[in-house]
Amino acid sequence: MDLLRRRTWLGLVLASAAVPLSAARAQGADLVIFAAASLKNALDEIATEWAKATGKPTPRISYAASSALAKQMEQGAPADLFISADLDWMDYVEKKGLIRPETRVNLLGNKIVLIAPRDSTTTIDVRPGFDLAKVLGDGKLAMANVDAVPAGKYGKAALQKLGAWDSVKDRIAQADNVRAALVLVARGEAPFGIVYSTDAAVEPTVKIVGTFPEDSHKPIIYPAALTKDAKSADAAPFLARLKGPQAGSAFEKQGFTVLVKSNSAT
Predict the structure, then answer these.
(1) Which of 95, 132, 175, 194 could disulfide-pair with 155, CB 3.0 to 4.6 Å?
(2) 155 touches 165 (CB < 8 A)
């Protein structure tokens, strides 16, 4: 087979292989969800139960920092549903025309806490003027990226409000997302960290040593919305499921506050 014929044959093979994939996506065969990393445990459970109840394929869920997911959407990454850990990044993708605003809903609430390894004997009264630098000693404070990732932004705002930021700002071990910050403390690589209370609840090797006052930062709200280019026919039903009583129970079991009124239709 000469070179030209080989190239022609290869092109036909690749083209024929690509058609089913694109056709499947166009028909909505897979439900693709972009979700904040802190949702993993609860959302995995909800997705598995939904698949069992409906006979549908289990949704494909990509977990990462809300900031990273929003940027991926902006660059054309395909998703049917986006769940952010703050309002800012949902506002961002809405302004970019990447979601269907009429489907947007404030789904959940959460809290941020100060954690330490399980064997820590420290308890910290997180209040205005508390000396976090002294407690840290020579260690680092694990946080999600404080300029982009919601958990990091909430944590930074709280530390600023409480007057502790300036003394620790040069001693932050920044992670790509809140679950990565959790791992730093779980592995003993950082003596303390700031994560969501729901993250602390699913990691047995850490403990909560302090809780940030709710008025030290903006309310922690998780909005959800269908994307503008959602292809899956399961996208709207799954979002409805997230607003229903079964999903609400799963979220509450993980420590989230459910902000939507459950409806029995899901």
Answers:
(1) 194
(2) no
